[in-house]
């Protein structure tokens, strides 16, 4: 049970990093953004923890 306190933050960190990398890779592949500039989206994704990547996925749609 003591190991659970060490495992949960590591798992959450891995999920956060994977979501951030996914959003940044999608952002760099886009030619344009709908609401904000790319530089501002990079700042939001990098520095607003889990809210930044989720808001990017919510507001910016892309067609593949």
How would a crystallographer describe the biggest sheet? Answer: none
Order of helices and strands: HHH
| Percent helix | over 70%
Q: Beta-strand level of the residues, as a percent range?
A: under 5%
Helix-strand category: mainly alpha
Low-confidence stretches: none
Count of structural domains: 1
- Overall average residue pLDDT: 89
How would you describe the shape?
A: elongated
Through-space gap between termini: 45 Å
Computed over alpha carbons, the radius of gyration is 14 Å
Q: How many E strands?
A: 0
**Contiguous helical run count:** 3
What are its keywords?
mainly alpha; transmembrane helix; transmembrane
Account of the protein in words:
The protein is mainly alpha-helical and 64 residues long. It has one domain (4-59). It is built from 3 helices and no strands. The longest helix has 26 residues, at 4-29. The termini are far apart. The mean pLDDT is 89.
């Amino acid at each position: 049970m003591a190991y659970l306190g060490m495992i949960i933050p590591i798992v959450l960190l891995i999920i956060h990093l994977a979501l951030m990398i996914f959003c940044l890779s999608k952002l760099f592949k886009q030619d344009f953004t709908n609401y904000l500039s790319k530089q501002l989206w990079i700042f939001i994704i990098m520095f607003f923890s889990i809210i930044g990547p989720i808001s990017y996925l919510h507001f910016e749609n892309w067609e593949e």
